[in-house]
Specification:
564 residues; alpha+beta; BirA Bifunctional Protein, domain 2; Rossmann fold; 3 domains; 5-stranded mixed beta sheet; 27% helix; globular
């Protein structure tokens, strides 16, 4: 490929609105261009990299026993309503009505669609297992698109789905996919972690995330020196064994807080430290109200709370439900005098003379103490962990690292096969729902992650497996006939070896070509100059190390044959 015959609009300086390194370099190297907020075009170089990534993903999926298909991006809304996920998607979904008045959703994922497809095709246990995958564009109305292709409204995803007759089959498929993911990310040249995770909106009981460290990621991972590793969503901590000091007052005392509802407002107005405040949040657990209590500097982890309570379903209460449960509007709830169960975080047990809502409008209480003024139904770990928390095993402290998810695998069980309908007749003649697994990879994020992990102050240093080209040919003086002829010959010779070659045939200054070559990050550069050619030599530069060596022109073919 000749530079003059393709589109590589490089930039000298970082774009002003780009924050992430991967965003800056992808724009500067001409890999991507923004069409609108969160929507990008992939230019020839960027598209070549995507294709390399997709090829690796496809090869490993096929090796893992999955078969490829392509499903519609346009989904009837009633299918999402049937699974119960239509409402839970919230404002992230992109939905519209067609001219006939039928509502559709642009697919952010395909559990519903693939379940209906498989459900209409299987009849007997003999039809299972089935594992299918696709590589397709997905859509979500991302509220804050940022960092280039890391967080977008339109993204390319590999999603795979397994259907088995029993848990043992699901376990085999899940493990096979986990191993395939490790091979994929290793082949793409990424350093990654595999962490336990919360299934979240997807449902199911077990999931793992494949993470890369990235300062621009939306996730955090908790680790300890003893090897603990978990995503922030499910990370646990050790019991700090807190005990409050003796109360300094005889009883709680009310004080006026007109229109002051939040922790920040109370803290600022009355000079109360957030960790001395008891934040009370009302939830509905299996249809019944309860109160969750954490310190003012913490946030309730609803997954932990649900497990502590033993509830199947948990959600925050509505304004009306809060009024009914506490007798006060939103912002004034507190544990003293509540007639609903109170579940306290461990930290609350260490608060003496705390401040909390009074269950009256525009009123709060101070000098509130556990045991004396209220008794929790149960205390436990119900908040998100923080830097420095005691590790779950009681040894060492937790460290939090900002990460980006590049892959996620789930054991979904029968959530979708029961609601959508994907059943089979087993050996005993009984009708049973298939047991399902789901496995996703963010293709765009692999590209961004590779840039984040493989770059220097000059530009990108692509891992060989996903580099847009294997070799880049540069001429110092393109106007020199002998140089041009030698470059053309080398280009043809390297291509004949099966190498992907970019020949910079522009009539540009050598400095511009060298800077662009380092920016683009092709692993090997072949540099042709008049002086070296007269001596029968060419220069080979390794982008990763910057090392150069002069090689006889006659040895070039053998040199690259050995590399291949």
């Amino acid at each position: 490929m000749k530079w003059s015959q393709t589109l590589i609009p490089t930039l000298r300086n970082d774009p002003k609105d780009a924050e992430a390194v991967s965003h800056k370099l992808a724009l500067r190297a001409g890999l991507i261009r923004q069409l609108s907020s969160g929507v990008y075009s992939y230019l020839p170089l960027g598209f070549r990299i995507l294709h390399k990534i997709i090829r690796i993903v496809r090869e490993e999926m096929l090796q893992a026993g999955a078969e490829e298909l392509l499903m519609p991006a346009l989904h009837p809304a009633e299918l999402w309503k049937k699974s119960g996920r239509y409402e839970s998607l919230g404002e992230d979904k992109i939905a519209f009505k067609n001219r006939a008045g039928h509502e559709f959703v642009l697919g952010p994922t395909h559990e519903e669609v693939v379940t209906e497809l498989v459900g209409s095709s299987i009849k007997s246990f003999r039809d299972l297992p089935v594992t299918l995958f696709q590589i397709q564009t997905k859509f979500r109305d991302e509220a804050r698109p940022r960092f280039g292709v890391i967080r977008t409204k339109e993204f390319i995803m590999k999603d795979a789905y397994s259907f088995d007759r029993d848990e043992a089959g699901l376990d085999r498929n899940y493990q096979s996919m986990a191993e395939a993911y490790r091979r994929i990310f290793t082949r793409c040249g990424l350093r990654f972690q595999v962490v336990k995770a919360d299934p979240g909106l997807m449902g199911g009981k077990t999931s793992q995330e494949f993470m890369v460290e990235c300062p621009y990621g939306e996730d955090r991972v908790a680790t300890s020196d003893q090897g603990y590793l978990a995503s922030l969503d499910i990370a646990e901590r050790g019991d700090p064994q807190l005990k409050a000091s003796a109360p300094q007052s005889v009883k709680p005392e009310g004080f006026d807080t007109p229109n002051l509802r939040t922790i920040d407002e109370i803290s600022h107005r009355f000079k109360v430290a957030p960790h001395q405040m008891m934040k009370t949040i009302i939830y509905m657990a299996d249809g019944k109200p309860l109160a969750a209590l954490v310190t003012g500097d913490s946030e309730v982890n609803e997954g932990k709370l649900r497990r502590l309570v033993g509830a199947k379903e948990l959600r925050q209460a509505t304004s009306q439900e809060i009024q009914e449960a506490t007798g006060a509007p939103v912002g004034f709830a507190g544990p003293v005098g509540l007639r609903i169960p109170v579940y306290a975080d461990w930290d609350i047990l260490g608060v003496a003379d705390g401040v909390t809502g009074a269950n009256q409008k525009d009123k709060h209480l101070k000098n509130v103490n556990v045991a004396r003024d209220f008794q929790p139904a149960k205390a436990g770990d119900i908040r998100y962990v923080k830097e420095g928390d005691l590790a779950p095993d009681g040894h060492g402290r937790l460290k939090l690292t900002t990460t980006m998810e590049i892959g996620h695998i789930f054991k979904l069980g029968t959530r979708y096969t029961e609601s959508i309908g994907a059943c089979f007749i087993d050996e005993a003649g009984q009708k049973k729902p298939a047991i399902m697994g789901c496995y996703g990879i963010g293709v765009n994020r692999i590209l961004a992650s590779a840039i984040e992990q493989h770059h220097d102050d000059k530009g990108m240093i692509w891992p060989a497996a996903i580099a847009p080209f294997d070799v880049m040919i540069l001429t110092i003086n393109q106007t020199d006939t002998a140089t041009r002829e030698a470059a053309e010959k080398i280009h043809a010779e390297l291509v004949s070896l099966g190498l992907e070659v970019l020949y910079d045939d522009r009539d540009e200054r050598a400095g511009v070509k060298f800077n662009d070559a380092d920016l683009i990050g092709v692993p090997t550069q072949v540099i042709l100059g008049e002086r070296n050619l007269k001596e029968g030599l060419i220069e080979i530069k390794t982008r990763a190390t910057g090392a150069t060596e002069k090689v006889p022109l006659s040895d070039l073919r053998g040199r690259f044959e050995a590399v291949r």
